[in-house]
Write a structure and sequence with these properties.
Blueprint: E1 3-9, H1 15-31, E2 35-41, H2 50-57, H3 71-74, H4 76-79, E3 85-88, H5 99-107, H6 116-123, H7 125-134, E4 142-146, H8 147-152, H9 154-159, E5 168-172, E6 182-184, H10 190-197, E7 203-208, E8 213-221, E9 225-234, H11 242-247, E10 252-254, H12 261-277, E11 282-291, E12 295-302, H13 312-319, H14 324-357
Parallel strand pairs: 1-2, 1-3
Antiparallel strand pairs: 4-7, 5-6, 5-7, 8-9, 8-11, 9-10, 11-12
Length: 358
């Protein structure tokens, strides 16, 4: 079996969620026989020694506090780990956005999940929507405001937004777990909501509020992507926000979602098409909004979905006949396959250059 490092924690606001995901992933990897090395990352980005990391996995620590030492010496916990594959479950910024993936590329280390480019693109909601639109895939009507324009002249920045019917949702363009998201019913509250979203990112997304159902589909694969069953989120709050996801435990999951067969198949097809559009592989969860019977929109693509006990990604694959231990094992296999193919391409480029020079 493979020696797998599981990276978790990190600097984002999803730090504690990441730890919970890591516990699930590590248990599943060990169940199928992999040797697992826990690699905790403190809230200030310092890598932690195996003892502290294991305490978080065992449930003795719910967060990994800042470590008062330089960053570079702590990287030895990764560099000296002798792992063959990294399984990142560092949700949000500095983990899901291509930065951790870039470190793995620099180290020539196979890693689970999407590439640097696909991770970065899917994490940026505005850029992702623009790409999906250009591919003819359905997204909710939206506009965006950058912090510089907003701080210079808020009223002018607001006037440059497209006319959208209220309610609208205001979100940081880069972020996860619905952090910084607000539903706005009164136009008078829009400016304050944008200011709030811009506390979390340099661009705010404003999109039409879709009165309808929240549906999700998981995607898995390498060169051939496959879609799981479709599930539905039944929020406990007015919308599925951070509090509802992780604090109240009031939301319900319906798997499979009660949908006409043709709607289910359309969602599964769009899930694969959207992940392919951003260049994704490995894993992704695609979130949809269904307005009425036929108004279907791609809401977000999550290239590093949650693996907590309430997370939809593994639950949807379990419904499709792929239990969690086999799912994580397949993800490790894909990581190795992608790395081998990438290495072959690199060697081909070097051979071509050598031929030109000689």
């Amino acid at each position: 079996m493979t020696r797998v490092g599981v990276a978790f924690g990190g600097r984002s606001v999803e730090h504690q969620v990441s730890i919970r995901s890591a516990r699930t992933v590590i248990g599943a990897l060990e169940e199928v026989g992999h040797e697992v090395v826990p690699l905790g990352i403190a809230q200030n980005g310092r890598w932690l020694d195996p003892g502290v990391s294991q305490r978080a996995v065992d449930g003795d620590l719910d967060s990994l506090g800042a470590v008062e030492k330089p960053l570079s010496p702590t990287l030895r916990y990764l560099l000296d780990s002798s792992i063959e594959v990294l399984f990142p479950v560092v949700h949000g910024t500095w983990g899901e956005d291509g930065t951790l993936q870039g470190l793995c590329e620099m180290l020539d280390l196979p890693y689970v999940g999407a590439s640097v480019g696909a991770s970065a693109l899917a994490m940026d909601k505005v850029l992702c929507k623009r790409l999906l639109e250009s591919c003819g895939l359905p997204v909710v009507e939206y506009g965006s405001i950058d912090r510089s324009s907003f701080e210079t002249d808020p009223e002018r920045a607001l006037k440059q937004l497209p006319e959208l019917p209220f309610p609208v949702f205001v979100k940081p363009s880069v972020g996860g777990s619905s952090v910084g998201v607000r539903k706005i019913v009164d136009p008078e509250d829009l400016q304050e909501a944008i200011a709030f979203a811009l506390r979390f990112d340099t661009t705010a997304l404003v999109e039409r509020g879709v009165p309808g159902r929240e549906l999700e589909c998981s995607v898995l694969g390498d060169q051939h992507l496959q879609a799981s069953a479709v599930g539905e989120i039944l929020p406990g709050n007015p919308f599925y926000d951070y509090e509802d996801k992780y604090l109240l435990d009031a939301a319900e999951l319906e798997i499979p979602a009660d949908l006409p067969p043709e709607t289910t198949e359309r969602i599964r097809s769009l899930a694969v098409d959207s992940v392919a559009a951003v260049g994704g592989h490995g894993m992704a969860r695609v979130d949809f909004l269904l307005e009425g019977e036929t108004g279907l929109y791609i809401n977000e693509i999550n290239t590093l979905p949650g693996f907590t006990s309430i997370s939809m990604y593994p639950k949807l694959w379990e419904e499709a006949g792929l239990p969690l231990p086999q799912l994580v094992d397949r993800l490790v296999e894909i990581a190795i396959s992608v790395h081998r193919r990438r290495k072959s391409l690199d060697e081909g480029i070097k051979d071509w250059l050598a031929h030109l020079e000689g």
